[in-house]
């Protein structure tokens, strides 16, 4: 029978790193577990400590406090070749003097020498570069180099792959297709991975679990759906997309809000701050006598319309609303704004 909760592959235990005594900690008390086959995204703004965390996991940086355990053993006690960690940085780091095949063969020490070329070709096939095996890295596009770097890392059969902003210098279309391919590849190989990114769409679409970092701390981890729909703090709510923050007076599952009585997703009493995403509000044209807001602006986005509307005499006075493509209201139009999902209570 399968073990329902196998020991995690990776455990971060209250990891802390301060580069200089006079600086704030780059990473503070970061703890999480990662299970075999899982993909985690570490998401946060520039300078929040994502790369430092990744470097400590790889054993490139020594923590001031806390530990990184791989199958229960501290990463720093393991010789680099026993860590079985593969790292893909944004600058690819392919060897410029080796063709793709030799680049991929480079890390395959675990494969008998006679079989390496054949296995390397299989990896190149898997990333869609079979016909490029004899090409040199500078004869490839950025996206192809990225996939080649990934093939080289995966060919070494690491237990854990660390990806540091690996798609950041690809153009928008290539970025999207490469991230879909890379995710499929990792899932097919059953490889455990951590992606570092400041791009919320990338984190939400790529990972099984997202950890949001702020100023060195991990402030929330959960499935992409949970961190997006049930943010715990205003920072997480706003970093993951647009939202409206409403001061409310809660009584159980109901609250008095600036938009009238609303439902809450959890019970509370007293003053609370509530997040309602633009898609959790609805907007419709209304006679002025029944309106509770006025359109400030409409941004047409093809599949939908993004509105800014203002209400009179409430705080906040401005709301963001996502409306269907066929809800077209001009600036200045009176309208009715209604919450259509329960509000999410924030704790900070
Ligand atoms: N080698 C270093 N020496 C001193 N301070 C450093 C060093 N590396 C990083 N820092 C500082 O540590 C903090 C966290 O940096 P880190 O690179 O981990 O953040 P990040 O979230 O990966 O940022 P980015 O998205 O911009 O790469 C920052 O304040 C940074 O200036």
From TrEMBL:
Alphabetical keyword list: ATP-binding, Nucleotide-binding, Transport
Pfam family of this protein, just one?
TOBE_2
* Gene Ontology CC annotations of this record: ATP-binding cassette (ABC) transporter complex
Single GO BP term: quaternary ammonium group transport
Q: Which SUPFAM superfamilies match?
A: MOP-like, P-loop containing nucleoside triphosphate hydrolases
The ABC transporter domain covers: 10-240
Q: Which domain of life is it from?
A: Bacteria
GO molecular function, a single term: ATP hydrolysis activity
- Name under which the protein is recorded: ABC transporter ATP-binding protein
| Annotated source species | Natronospirillum operosum
Taxonomy of the source species: Bacteria, Pseudomonadati, Pseudomonadota, Gammaproteobacteria, Oceanospirillales
């Amino acid at each position: 029978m399968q073990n329902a909760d196998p020991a995690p592959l990776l455990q971060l235990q209250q990891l802390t790193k301060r580069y200089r005594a006079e600086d704030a900690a780059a990473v503070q008390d970061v703890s999480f577990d990662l299970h075999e086959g899982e993909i985690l995204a570490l998401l946060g703004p520039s300078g929040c400590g994502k790369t430092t965390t990744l470097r400590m996991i790889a054993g490139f940086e020594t923590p001031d406090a806390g530990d990184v355990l791989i199958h229960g053993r501290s990463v720093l006690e393991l010789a680099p070749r026993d860590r079985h960690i593969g790292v893909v940085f944004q600058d690819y780091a392919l060897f410029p003097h080796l063709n793709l095949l030799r680049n991929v063969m480079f890390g395959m020490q675990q494969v008998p020498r006679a079989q390496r070329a054949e296995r390397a070709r299989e990896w190149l096939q898997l990333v869609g570069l079979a016909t490029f095996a004899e090409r040199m890295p500078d004869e490839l596009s950025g996206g192809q180099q990225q996939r080649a770097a990934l093939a080289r890392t995966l060919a070494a059969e690491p237990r854990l792959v660390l990806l540091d902003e690996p798609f950041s210098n690809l153009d928008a279309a290539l970025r999207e297709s490469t991230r879909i391919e890379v995710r499929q590849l990792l899932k097919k190989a059953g490889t455990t991975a951590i992606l570092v990114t400041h791009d919320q769409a990338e984190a939400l679409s790529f990972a099984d679990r997202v950890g949001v970092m702020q100023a060195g701390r991990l402030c929330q981890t959960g499935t992409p759906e949970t961190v997006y729909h049930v943010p715990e703090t205003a920072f997480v709510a706003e970093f993951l997309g647009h939202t409206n923050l409403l001061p409310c007076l809660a009584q159980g599952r109901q609250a008095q809000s600036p938009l009238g009585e609303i439902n809450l997703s959890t019970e509370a009493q007293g003053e609370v701050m509530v997040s309602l995403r633009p898609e959790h509000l609805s907007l419709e044209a209304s006679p002025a006598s029944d309106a509770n807001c006025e359109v400030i602006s409409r941004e047409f986005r093809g599949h939908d319309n993004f509105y800014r509307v203002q209400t009179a005499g409430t705080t906040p006075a401005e709301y963001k609303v996502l409306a269907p493509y066929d809800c077209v209201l001009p600036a200045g139009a009176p309208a009715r704004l209604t919450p259509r999902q329960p509000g999410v209570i924030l704790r900070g």
